[in-house]
Amino acid sequence: MLNTLQRSIAPAPSRILRPGLTALAAGVERHKVPGTGSLVIDVKAGDGLVFRDVEGGQWCEVAFCDSHGRFDAAALDAKADGPADGLLSMLALNREGAARTLAGLRRRNIDLRQARAIRLFGPSSRAGGTASFKVSEDGILIVAAPGADMAPDSQETATEIELRLTRAAPRLKAVGGDLPEPLADPVQDIRIAAATARAYLVEAGEYIQIIDVAGRQMTDFQCFSARKLDQGVENALDATVTRTLTGRALPVPGLPSKAFGFDFEPMVEVIQDTVGRHDAFATACNARYYDDVGYPGHVNCTDNFNRALVPYGVARRKGWEALNFFYNTRMDAHDVIVADEAWSRAGDFVMLRALTDLVCVSSACPDDIDPGNGWEPTDIHVRTYAAERKFSRAVAYRMTPDADPQMTRETAFHPRFAALTRNHTEYRGYWLPQRFNNRGPVEEYWACREKCVVLDLSALRKFEVTGPDAEALLHYCLTRDIRKLATGQVVYSAMCYENGGMIDDGTLFRLGHNNFRWIGGDDYSGLWLRQQAEKMGYQAWVRSSTDQLHNIAVQGPNSRDLLKEIVWTAPAQPAIGELEWFRFAVGRIGHFEGTPLVVSRTGYTGELGYEIFCHPKDALTVFDAVWEAGQKHGIKPMGLEALDMVRIEAGLIFANYEFTSETDPFEAGIGFAVPLKSKTDDFIGKEALIQRKAHPRRRLVGLDIEANEAVGHGDSVHLGRAQIGVVTSAMRSPILGKTIALARVDALDGEIGAEVEIGKLDGQQKRLPARIVKFPHYDPEKTRPRS
């Protein structure tokens, strides 16, 4: 009977969840219009449009232009509300996406002077509100999310509009779908059909954009110096030389961006990358690979390269070395090369710049015998752009796994900091300085401890939380007692899941009775707050203002005297000299009519310090005032390397180091931010935190290390042979003259004074003696920031 039952049940199909990909039905496209941004897209008769006010309270302008260049809202079965003033204003001010919108309109010969628009949503619109239309004729759709400059003490930010476009005649994936708009007027548009390769010429200085058309498609790239080919020399790009010279597995946008030929000649540099996962170890797929796994005669990239390069006189090879873009290939802990399906999504790309005249060859990999191409090889598209065009170096940052990529941006303060250093790193979608020329992290560190420094913290995420239920929402979602927060006050808090694991930490500013500003490290915290407001039925809006508020920190013993000289505050506001710890004031640079800003007495250094928030258009004015006044106070710029040093000494935690979603605030060392006794009201995670506090598993401790060797994040902590914890952060403390660390250890083994060892190499062959101590190591009573 059992055997009969087993035979009658068919094997269940594989279930795969893809939270990183938006589950869109066939023919449905998703397009995002950022706050103050715009979008141009072709539409056809029968297409369906659904506009969504993602965060609420945002105006949207929609204009339709027919194939003759006439603006006519009747094609959407609607009536225009008036001139497209918001769109025209955003384009005139060169707001987000303006250059691409204008280029798209020029290519279609559309005159915006006659533009009329439908106006949707507005200040009273709820988050997630929608408006739907049907297109009755072919034409062009222009969408804008207009907004004015937000003053730092106001909350009138501009946020995202989403368009869901349902095509009446959807394209099949095999055709490749719609390509993204060109980044400029292309010099060449080259389609590489699935399982083929093409060679092409690129001049020095020109840009090469390699696009994954449908997603999950791998492509090999190789190039040769055209000048040397003419001389009979095949100087091909060499991945081994590139790894050796850059010290990285593969080049990336920024300083280590170049790829080199076999004779060490720079060939290309990586300018932009929306994926971040590629391979530079293996050769392009070849006949031998397929022969050995039982597929003799299978088409392969190497043979396709050989055929494509015949016109250029390049000798055939059995296996081509290449930069293998979009390949998800890695070396595991057992030194085995492992591969999985590509991370790239439809429209993802890598952009290169030619450093000499090149003969290039690109493939659309034919691999259909493993997950690499998602089991279905598709097309690759190559665009080249003129050398006169300028593209900023950038990688892609996604706010959430299913979000559209945002390219790394420069903060509004970047021009001033970039004049002092070329050493920047990508941090949550922005380029921030790592260290400064002629100084370095140790000198920057001492300037913070003894005088004053200025650093760029604009990448912090800001959210305006408003509405009659704003306090109730935050009281329910944060661990602190928000009802005790007064206007003008700031409080540090944790934000937790129901199980007590941390989502984020940050500071909350109270601007008014129903007005708050949450400043944290992660975009998801704002999204999560919005979700809780909807779930609980709170009348509260949570709207991103990160693009409307950029900020610098002025930190160090001299910071108060510096800012007293340049910040004017109204009589109803505290003066800078009166501003207490975790308070803020609204002020201006210099005088009553000066540049507006908000100054908070907060920081991330363990020193007396302030943070200054302003609109991006005013950033250079603010920086120049601080820099000029700071000269007599010994001001220096500070990068992220020195910031990491001072925050470790001060025992200040950092996401994905001291805490993750598996860590509760007690384990992260910020139990003071969870007042379980005094906050009697319910909040998210409260019950779990009561249990986790009563039955702790791990705790954050300080370590004094009795060795001068480097210790780093992830190093194991041992009691005898047994591992009892892991180092979360470590540094060589200049002021203490020793190596110190923060570590998360088993609660039962983490007694103060316990002797432990830091594991190096494999954790057993080499140990560094250490002792568990209280943290913070520096100024444990916080007398300096309180002073």
Characterise the protein shown here.
By secondary structure, the protein is an alpha+beta fold. Helices cover 17% and strands 32% of the residues. It has 16 helices and 44 strands. The strands form nine sheets. Strands 10, 12, 14, 15, 19, 21, 22 and 23 form an eight-stranded mixed beta sheet that branches. It has a seven-stranded mixed beta sheet with strand order 34-35-36-37-33-27-38, sandwiched between helices. A hairpin with a 5-residue loop joins strand 14 and strand 15. It is globular. The termini are far apart.
Low-confidence stretches: none
Task: State the end-to-end distance.
Answer: 82 Å
Strand content: 25-35%
Question: What is the strand tally?
Answer: 44
Radius of gyration: 29 Å
Estimate the helix proportion, in percent: 10-25%
Structural category is: alpha+beta
Main sheet properties = 8 strands, mixed
Helix count?
16
Q: What is the residue-averaged pLDDT? A: 93
**Cα shape:** globular
Give a topology summary:
Layout: H1 2-8, E1 28-33, E2 38-43, E3 48-53, E4 59-66, E5 82-83, H2 85-92, H3 98-107, E6 116-121, E7 129-134, E8 139-144, E9 161-166, E10 186-192, E11 197-202, E12 207-212, E13 219-225, H4 226-230, H5 239-246, E14 258-260, E15 266-273, H6 287-292, H7 301-308, E16 323-325, E17 328-331, E18 337-340, E19 349-354, E20 358-363, E21 380-385, E22 394-397, E23 406-407, E24 409-410, H8 414-418, E25 424-427, E26 430-433, H9 441-450, E27 452-456, E28 461-466, H10 470-477, E29 490-496, E30 502-512, E31 515-520, H11 523-536, E32 541-544, E33 550-555, H12 559-566, E34 567-569, E35 584-589, E36 596-600, E37 609-614, H13 619-630, E38 635-637, H14 640-649, H15 686-694, E39 698-705, E40 716-719, E41 722-733, E42 738-746, E43 755-760, E44 766-773, H16 783-786
Parallel strand pairs: 15-22, 24-26, 27-38
Antiparallel strand pairs: 1-9, 2-8, 3-7, 3-9, 4-6, 4-8, 5-6, 10-21, 11-20, 12-19, 12-21, 13-16, 13-20, 14-15, 15-19, 17-18, 22-23, 25-26, 27-33, 28-31, 28-32, 29-30, 30-31, 33-37, 34-35, 35-36, 36-37, 39-42, 39-44, 40-41, 40-43, 41-42, 43-44
